[in-house]
Each structure stands twice: as C-alpha cells, then as structure tokens.
Amino acid sequence: LQPYAVYWSKQMIQRLITRMIIVAMMWIGLLLLKESLSTQLLWQALIFSVIVLVGSLLEQIFHYQGDPYILPVVEAILALGLVFVVRIEPEAHIYTGQAVHQFWWANIGLVIFYAVLWIMRDYRKLGRLRYLWGLIAVALLLVTLLFGSTAGGAKSWLNLGGITLQPEEFVKLGLLLFMASYLEENEELLRVG
C-alpha cells in the first residue's frame, strides 16, 4: 500500500506542477497585455485556471489512463491561443469580444472533457460501438449534404435553432473512434496482409 501512495503523490505533484506552469504561462501573457484586459476577461481566465488545476486532481482521482502528455500539451496550446486572441482582438464590448467568446468555449470544452472523464472512466468501452460510430459519421455527412447551409463557399454548416456548427468536426471524432477500434480488432490480419 505504501509504494502506491508514494507513486500516487509523485504523479499528482507532477501533474499539478505541469498545470501550474501552463496557468502561469497564460497569466504572464495576459498581464503583459494589461491594457487589453477587462474584468469579464479576467474572470474567464480565472475560471480557466481553476478548471485546469482542479482537472489535474480529477485525473488522479478518476485514474485517468490516457496518455499523460497529450492533455497538458493541448491545454498549453489552448492557453497560448487564448493569449494570442486577446492580443490580436481585444474585446470591443464585454459580451461581444472574440477573446471573451474564446475563453467561454475553452472553459466549456474543459468542463465537458472532465465530465466525460468522470462518466466514462475506461475509454476502451467506446470501441465496442465501432460500427455505430462509423454509421453516425456517415449520417452526419449525409445530413450536412441534404440540409446544410453554405458559408465561405462550402456547404458544411448546419443551423440548429440559432446555433451554427460544422458536423464535420463530429465526423472526425466518429471516424477516429471507428478506425481505431477497427484497426485494433483486425491488427493481426492487416499486419500479415
């Protein structure tokens, strides 16, 4: 029992330090742009910081089995991207600024990630529904083809009650889940050829 507790604490400390570096990197970038900051933007950055730090603890509590480097790298890129958006286009109005919207979506995305982590503790269960994921991906493409709207010269948008989204982003996830589980199932056959 003792070695597990030591491992758990070392891993937890490593995750926390990594996330603290990411949060510090974002705050240093934001503080260098202090003339572009509003209270709404600062609140969103604070919420982002709390989600990232508490999320690293949740990963340890829920025994996150995924790659230990992908999520921190994604969070670091996200934090830098948020700083760049603040630098490029500070908000003209508190609720219409691009930076505030990006912080909102980043925070919502992180909350959804940790909710999925809590709900589905073993990601390998997704592989059992491989053909469903492939079917959903094809169905989303067909729905976009039939009912999609054109923007920027491409018919790749769906308008759902005032919310506009690109189903292709969900198609990527569906095909990724399908292909990963299909290739895992047929690995030996594909290797021998």
Q: Can you walk me through this structure?
A:
By secondary structure, this protein is mostly helical. The protein contains seven helices and three strands. It has a three-stranded antiparallel beta sheet with strand order 1-2-3. The mean pLDDT is 83.
Instruction: Give the integer mean of the pLDDT values.
Output: 83
Q: Strand tally, please?
A: 3
β-strand amount: 5-15%
Helix/strand structural class = mainly alpha
Please give the radius of gyration in angstroms. Answer: 20 Å
Distance between the termini: 46 Å
- Strands of the widest sheet, in order across it, are 1-2-3
Residue share in helix:
over 70%
Largest sheet: 3 strands, antiparallel
Low-confidence residue ranges: none
**SS element count, helices:** 7
Order of helices and strands: HHHHHEEEHH
Q: What's the overall geometry?
A: flat
What brief labels describe this structure?
flat; 193 residues; three-stranded antiparallel beta sheet; mainly alpha
